[in-house]
Amino acid sequence: MNKEPEESLTLSLNFHSAKGNVKLFTISGNSTESYNDMGHEEVRIEESEAGAFRMGMEIALKAHSVNVIWIEE
């Protein structure tokens, strides 16, 4: 989760036993006042590929977003 309203954050992945491709799912809106409810379509889920896992790889988290990082086996 990145609670910063205007700045992205970088997260470093350090899992000794992880291997496989990394996917990032990001939930974000147009502003800090956006919320996920019926009729509020400014909130969206984005899926992106980060490539093969490597120790210390960095993932950028969008400003004011909730994120799920999935490492496929």
Overall description:
- 0% of the residues lie in helices and 42% in strands.
- By secondary structure, the protein is mainly β.
- It has one domain.
- The strands form two sheets. Strands 3-2-5 form a three-stranded antiparallel beta sheet, with no helix packed on it. A two-stranded antiparallel ribbon has the order 1-4.
- It is elongated.
Q: Overall pLDDT, averaged? A: 90
N-to-C series of helices and strands: EEEEE
Strand content: 35-45%
Structural class: mainly beta
Q: How far is the N terminus from the C terminus?
A: 24 Å
Poorly predicted segments: none
How many domain regions?
1
What's the story with the biggest beta sheet?
3 strands, antiparallel
Number of strands: 5
Number of helices: 0
Instruction: Using the alpha-carbon principal axes, give the shape.
Output: elongated
Spatial strand order of the main sheet = 3-2-5
C-alpha Rg (nearest Å): 14 Å
Q: Name the helicity range.
A: under 10%
What are its keywords?
3-stranded antiparallel beta sheet; mainly beta; 5 strands; about 40% strand; elongated; two-stranded antiparallel ribbon; about 70 residues
SSE map:
Elements lengths: L8 E4 L8 E8 L15 E9 L5 E4 L4 E6 L2
Concise synopsis of the structure shown:
With 73 residues, this protein is mostly beta strands. The protein is 0% helix and 42% strand. The protein has strands at residues 9-12, 21-28, 44-52, 58-61, 66-71.
